[in-house]
Amino acid sequence: MLAVETINLTKDYRVGFWRTRPRRALERLSLEVEIGEVFGLLGPNGAGKSTTLKILLGLVFPTAGSARLFGRDPRDISAHQSVGYLPENPSFYDHLTAKEFMTYAASLFGLSDKARTRQIGLLLEQVGLSDSGKFPLRKFSKGMIQRLGIAQALINDPDLIFLDEPMSGLDPVGRREVRNLILQLKENGKTIFFSTHILSDAETLCDRVAILDHGRLQGCGELREILQVGLSSTEIVLEKPSRDAVVALEPFASSVVRTGNRVRLELRAESDLTEVLAQIVRWNAKLISLNPVRMSLEDYFMERVGGNDNSSLRNTAAAGTESPKSE
Amino acid sequence: MIQRIRTIALHTFKESVREKVLYNLIVFALLLIGSAVLFASISLGIKRIMLINLGLSSIAVFGLLMAIFIGIGLVSKEIDRRTIHNILSKPVRRFEFIIGKYLGLLLTLVVNTAIMTGGFYLALYYVERHMGGEDVLLLEAVYFILLQFAIVVGLALLFSCISSPILSAFFTFCLYIVGNFLGDIRWFGRESGSVIFEKVAALLYYLLPNFSDFQVISQAAHGKGVPSYLMTSGSLYALLYVTILISASILIFEEREF
Questions:
Q1: Order of strands across the sheet that contains A21-34
Q2: pLDDT in tens, A23-81
Q3: Burial class for A15, CB neighbours closer than 10 Å (0-12, 13-18, 19+)
């Protein structure tokens, strides 16, 4: 059985004053997520990531196609019993304390008093909020709210966890903690489905990723397959090479970059490597490093959606940081 | 199901009682009831009538304000703050959410009305220095006030599902005002001589919430109890109307996307 399955999922939002004009947010999206996988949904702003998550949680209804959580319709609430969800930019009740909010969340899952108390203590400790449990949420910072959001998503010890931009609002320490938490959840056999702008997080955490752009699936695959599509090039770094050495090597390189005393060359073809090494020995250049350059997730991402005119995406991918707002 | 509705209702109650506006309204209501003692003391011969009229009217007006101001945000606030995502992603049916929200606010109003009624009885005891059987009968009027609140909360909830808080407050308040004059509107319709006007008036009479039959404060002030048939019909009418309002809210809410 699959943890998550979408078949030709399509969603049109009605826009305009009379809400008569359809705007397609998702186009025939078909995905399969195995139990125990960490699955990343990547895409620029407005790609349809949050819409996909909302359909899977029954918050939005598909125009066509279907979605399944452990084989059940998302509108069937029994499917939600083993599901946890962290919304994007979560917002909770200002009048409650963290413990009261967690108690409320636990009660909706029908947890017994004993299980509830144990689980709340454990989770607040895990996300680093055990000292803030009695503070009202209106006094929480964005990062604290995000941590609480993660804690409430785990209150029912779910088998499937949806995280919409889980690193949003967290400082580097918080991001590392959340990353470790996700890896720990994976070790415990949980299925994690998350959307992110931060490619380095996806690269660290995901078994498989899917890339969405303008509601269409641009690519989906196992991360190791994507990243080992082949050597895209070989990188050589030389220290203080003579001018003649550089001139001799230039015909083999697709790029030559000087940084201080060092020269970095990217080879055009792997087959030239023997000849290049011979030239290095001939010109007595000092070889610092020789590395095969594999395709990164960022390269893959840019290859799939970089052709579209989307500067925000380029900035996001290039910087490996999040954009201010997703869709 | 019951447990989830209870959880949402108790959470709504907790949220409501932590609203500062609620305490302001209670304080104003108690002040007004207190000032009724003053008015009563300068009203020769009609002390009691004056006090009961002012006291019960204060409970009705301030309770109505609480029902509207808290009721209009019941659902829309959850949508605006996106807290609804947390709730509906958990094993909560949409109708459970709506019923829980309704019951939570109703519970808030029952507790607040009890506090205001306690204040009212204290004022009555201060003026009269004794309590009798006729004073207990005043609880019938309080019950009728609560029936009105039940309908007003249902209206506020319905509008909260479809429009902004300001529009919800406006519509709820307008319907409350119109609902208080439905008896007169129907009478005007009959007396107008116009068939169309008579039919429109009759349609409004049956369609809109009829609050005019719940006005028993003046009757209570004059020591007249509420007839048992009116108690029964009033209770059934409120129950039926609230059921219709909640059902309509659920139907709308079931199809909403967040």
A1: A21-34, A2-15, A64-69
A2: 898 999 999 999 999 999 988 888 889 899 999 999 999 999 999 999 999 988 889 99
A3: exposed
Facing A60 at nearest CB: one of B15, B83, B257: B257
Measured in angstroms, the CA of B128 and the nearest CA of chain A are apart by 42
For residue A77, give the nearest of B19, B85, B93 by CB distance: B93
- The amino acid at B45: G
Domain ranges of chain A: 2-82+158-227, 231-294
Percent of chain A with pLDDT over 90: 33
Encoded amino acid at A317, one letter: A
Write the DSSP symbol of residue A84.
Answer: E
Structure confidence at residue A322 (pLDDT): 37
In this complex, do B90 and A93 lie within 8 Å of one another by their Cβ atoms? no
Q: For residue A169, what pLDDT is reported?
A: 76
Distance from CA of B108 to the nearest CA of A (A): 16
Residue B226 Cα, gap to closest chain A Cα (Å): 41
Which residues in chain B have Cβ-Cβ distances shorter than 8 Å to A77?
A: 91-93
Alpha helix locations (H) across chain B? 2-17, 20-41, 47-71, 76-80, 83-88, 94-128, 133-162, 165-180, 182-192, 195-207, 217-221, 228-254
Of B142, B149, B128, give the one whose Cα is nearest residue B63.
B149
Which residue of chain A is at minimal alpha-carbon distance from B95?
A: A77
Inter-chain residue contact A59 with B89, CB threshold 8 Å: yes
Testing the interface with B: which of A50, A55, A77, A168 to mutate, by most B Cβ within 10 A? A77
User: Is the CB of B91 less than 8 angstroms away from the CB of A85?
Assistant: no
List, for residues B58-107, the tens digit of each pLDDT value: 889 888 988 898 888 888 888 888 999 999 999 999 999 999 999 999 99
CA–CA gap between residue B198 and residue B192 (Å, rounded) = 7
Out of 3.40.718.10, 3.30.70.980, 3.40.50.2300, 3.30.460.10, select the CATH number for domain A231-294.
3.30.70.980
Mutation for testing the B interface, residue in A93, A116, A150, A156 having most B CBs under 10 Å: A93
Contact with chain A for residue B258, Cβ under 8 A: yes
pLDDT score of B138: 86
Residue range B10-33: mean pLDDT, rounded: 82
The pLDDT-based confidence of B43 (bands split at 50, 70, 90) is low
Dist CA B188 CA B205 (whole Å) = 12
Q: Kindly indicate whether the domain formed by A2-82+158-227 is annotated with CATH number 3.40.50.300.
A: yes
Residue matched to tokens 């659920």: B250
How would you label A202-229 residue by residue, b for 16+ Cβ within 10 Å and e otherwise?
A: bbebbbbbbbbbbbbbbbbeebeebeee
How many beta-carbon pairs below 8 A join chains A and B?
A: 74
Chain B partners within 8 Å of A108 (Cβ):
4, 7-8, 87, 90-92
